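Figure 6 in text form: structure in, sequence out.
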């Protein structure tokens, strides 16, 4: 399932999709668009006005009239059976950091697995909690699994107090959800969850690249810090995306093993293209995946760049509907840039111009000033 296994090294390694921004970077894609090409080569008579629309015509006094409170995320934190006390305190600390992040983000937070265990069946409680959640909503649902996992060669499981939950069972429980969903399974042996839970409108992150990575996984303890760490904010838009947190936590987990002089026994993956194939952090440069999976499968990282637990100033000014519209426009631009090699220059730039103008008009009509990302991070 790991994408590296399906990579054709001769044709695909080193492929750079130049200029493909992700997420909020598109709010200033026009600036990069211009900065990377000589004006005389890019339909100058059309694009100069475009630049004006996207940059100077965007009102610099942002309206605070939009209500973004109705699409605050719900975060379900599931702390699994600790096994040994040492792991228990580690898991409690992770859950505590997630809860603090949720408090700062003013989102709904539900924690399972930390109360009195005497009568507890967390399997049933997780199932009931998911059943009670709204299935259609503009608000994101985050499911964070903190604990140990197992894999018997066929099925991955997450260890709960009481019966464990399998990847198949969790996939069934999540099937009715149409709202955007992020599942972060930080346990050992977690990779099978990526295959089973992958789908449209979903980001699935696992601490391991196979069910056979069975040692205690450290990815989660870095991830719960990265999600609120300004240093993870690669594009400097004043918010940490799910992708940015994944990249930082993956790097830090790798550095842990290097520092200990040990071979890494965990390799985290992210899938948000819905194809059940995960992408490791070292396939990214900045926020762009620079390696392509086999058979031109969709690259990962686009949706994950649009998930933010703590929203930056620009995001807070957008209403839920506006955010959906903006996200769709940004994704359309990114996906169009993916097609560059298959289009003529005229076809490519004509459509790109149309999309950029639409994005510019969006910001103009909604009186929002985009945050300025660091273009060098892309
Ligand atoms: Ca960011
Ligand atoms: Ca994928």
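Output sequence:
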């Amino acid at each position: 399932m790991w994408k590296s296994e399906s990579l054709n090294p001769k044709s695909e390694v080193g492929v750079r999709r130049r200029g493909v921004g992700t997420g909020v970077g598109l709010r200033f894609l026009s600036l990069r668009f211009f900065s990377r090409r000589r004006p005389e080569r890019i339909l100058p008579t059309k694009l100069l006005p475009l630049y004006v629309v996207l940059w100077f015509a965007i009102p610099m006094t942002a309206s605070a009239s939009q209500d973004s409170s109705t699409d605050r995320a719900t975060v379900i934190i599931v702390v699994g059976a600790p096994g040994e006390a040492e792991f228990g305190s580690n898991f409690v600390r992770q859950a505590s950091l997630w809860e603090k992040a949720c408090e700062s983000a003013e989102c709904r937070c539900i924690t399972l697995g930390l109360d009195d265990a005497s009568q507890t069946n967390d399997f049933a409680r997780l199932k009931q909690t998911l059943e009670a959640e709204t299935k259609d909503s503009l608000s994101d649902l985050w499911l964070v699994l903190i604990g140990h996992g197992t894999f018997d060669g066929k099925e991955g499981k997450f260890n709960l107090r009481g019966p464990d939950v399998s990847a198949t069972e969790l996939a069934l429980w999540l099937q009715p959800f149409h709202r955007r969903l992020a599942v972060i399974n930080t346990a050992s042996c977690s990779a099978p969850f990526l295959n089973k839970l992958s789908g449209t409108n979903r980001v699935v992150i696992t601490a391991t690249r196979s069910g056979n990575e069975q040692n205690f996984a450290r990815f989660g303890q870095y991830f719960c810090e990265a999600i609120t760490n300004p240093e993870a904010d690669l594009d400097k838009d004043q918010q940490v995306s799910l992708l940015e947190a994944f990249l930082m936590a993956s790097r830090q987990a790798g550095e842990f093993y290097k520092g200990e002089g040990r071979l890494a026994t965990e390799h985290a993956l992210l899938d948000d293209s819905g194809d059940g194939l995960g992408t490791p952090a070292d396939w990214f440069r900045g926020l762009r995946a620079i390696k392509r999976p086999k058979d031109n499968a969709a690259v990962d990282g686009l949706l994950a760049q649009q998930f933010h637990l703590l929203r930056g100033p620009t995001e807070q000014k957008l209403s839920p509907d506006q955010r959906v519209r903006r996200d769709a426009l940004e994704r359309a631009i990114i996906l169009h840039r993916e097609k560059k090699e298959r289009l003529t220059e005229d076809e490519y730039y004509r459509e790109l111009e149309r999309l950029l103008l639409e994005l510019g008009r969006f910001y103009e009509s909604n009186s929002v000033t985009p945050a300025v990302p660091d273009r060098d991070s892309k």
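Caption detail: Residues 271, 273, 275, 277, 300 surround calcium ion (ligand 2) (CB under 6 Å).
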